[in-house]
Design goal:
435 residues; alpha/beta; 7-stranded mixed beta sheet; 16 helices; 11 strands; elongated
Length: 435
């Protein structure tokens, strides 16, 4: 008799204390749960063994990446419905199965074990980062982490990001498209930095060269871009040559800590500082301060998390750390501003683009879903599933104010404390020589 789905919904209610808000379709073809709700498809009972061995987010992520779990229906609606019951309990879950004292829970866990089948659990999917040893955020470990995320094929990223090849939050107007919104974001950064003909710009974490090209082509800047990704650098250099800008742009495979040819007139750091880590953030701020000339501007575009009541309780998201951004860390925007100022910068403007990132991520997910067969061929089924889940879940996190993204404009003060900023700078069009 095919009844696995019915048994699972009953067991889930016992374990979670409330009904699952989604419908379940099990490997034996059975279904149970609220009609019309998104369907959680459990293709193989190996998924249960993963969840029993690693309760919470990591177990679910492994089953998803391996293709043992899927969602039929609205992905965003399903993630929204399940977040409070499953993912947000992950921090409270234990690393392995432990007996519980409540007899009802013991019985439910026993029933789940019977459904899960023989142990041990299957190994993690190959897309999972193997645990790194050694000190966090050494140059070698950072290079390995960056390679894991970015060296998965430029064609794959072009499919997801579109022709702009900008992998950070776009800047939207009503009715705009992704390419226009990304161009507008790059232009916003250039205006905030008050770039002009001949200025030296350092683009930290330059990606596929989009910011460097825009600054050189539209503002006449001379740009040095640094990245730890060999694949990104090769793609950027090819684009720059095609644009005829090799005399204005240099792309280096280099750690920002090794840049020694300052001073620069301006520095852009767009979506890079999340990789720096709390143990290195003051060093990051000190290095960028030293590379700027007095009166030079820094535009730091960075994802932020909400502050914790007890900051020592902060832990890195298990799924993101294992599959997406190894060793990545988020900080509250206030902590970032404080660290920049401790290094000597004066913070002149902070602009939140939280809603803009949610819109951007939804467009990326749509691009991925539209090109799904190609994406799978370019990488692997597991890698494509990682990107779909992380981008969709991140879009919801931005929409619900779980995380945000901010552009911090900071200045290295000139002699006597001058910032060389106009009195009213918010339109980013005024002459930047005043102040």
């Amino acid at each position: 008799m095919a009844d696995a789905a019915l048994r699972l919904t009953a067991l889930a209610q016992e374990l979670l204390g409330e009904p699952l808000p989604v419908r379940i379709r099990a490997w034996d073809g059975s279904e149970s749960g609220p009609p019309g709700a998104p369907v959680l498809v459990i293709r193989n009972r190996r998924a249960l063994r993963r969840l029993l061995w690693k309760p919470g987010e990591l177990g679910l992520a492994r089953a998803w990446v391996a293709g043992e779990l899927d969602i039929e229906g609205d992905l965003y609606a399903a993630l929204d419905l399940m977040a409070g019951l499953l993912w947000e309990r992950g921090g409270e879950a234990k690393d392995s199965v432990h007996p519980v004292r409540d007899p009802k829970l013991r019985a439910a866990a026993k029933g789940l074990l019977q459904l899960a089948g023989p142990w041990p659990p299957p190994p993690p999917p190959p897309e999972e980062v193997r645990r790194r040893s050694g000190t966090l955020h050494t140059k070698r470990r950072d290079k390995e982490a960056i390679s894991h995320h970015y060296d998965v094929g430029n064609d794959f990223y072009e499919l997801v990001l579109g022709p702009s090849m900008v992998y950070s939050c776009a800047y939207w107007e009503d009715g705009g498209n992704l390419e226009d919104a990304q161009r507008d974001k790059l232009d916003l950064v250039c205006r905030k930095l008050a770039l002009k003909e001949g200025d030296r710009l350092l683009d930290v974490g330059c990606g596929w060269g989009s910011m460097a090209i825009h600054a050189a082509r539209e503002y006449g800047a001379r740009v040095t871009g640094v990245t730890l990704s060999v694949e990104q650098a090769a793609f950027a250099r090819k684009r720059i040559a095609e644009e005829g800008l090799t005399d204005r742009i240099e792309i280096r495979v280099q750690d920002y800590r090794d840049v020694r040819d300052g001073p620069y007139d301006a520095i852009s750091s767009i979506g890079m500082a999340e990789h720096v880590g709390s143990v290195r953030y003051r060093e990051y701020a000190d290095d960028l301060y030293a590379l700027l000339k007095p009166g030079g501007r820094l535009l730091n575009h960075q994802i932020a998390r909400r502050p914790e009541k007890d900051e020592s309780a902060y832990h890195v998201d298990e799924f993101i750390d294992a599959y997406v951004f190894p060793d990545g860390e988020l900080a509250p925007v206030g902590r970032t501003v404080a660290t920049l100022e401790e290094a000597g910068f004066e913070a002149r403007d902070v602009e939140s683009l939280r809603e803009h990132y949610a819109l951007t991520l939804r467009r990326w997910v749509a691009n991925l879903e539209k090109g799904w067969p190609r994406a799978v061929r370019m990488t692997s089924p597991g890698r494509a599933r990682v990107w779909r889940l992380y981008m969709a879940a991140s879009a919801l996190s931005f929409e619900h104010n779980k995380i945000g993204v901010n552009q911090i404009l900071a200045v290295r003060p000139a002699e006597g404390g001058g910032a060389r900023m106009p009195l009213r700078a918010r339109d980013w069009k005024a002459d930047a020589t005043g102040g």
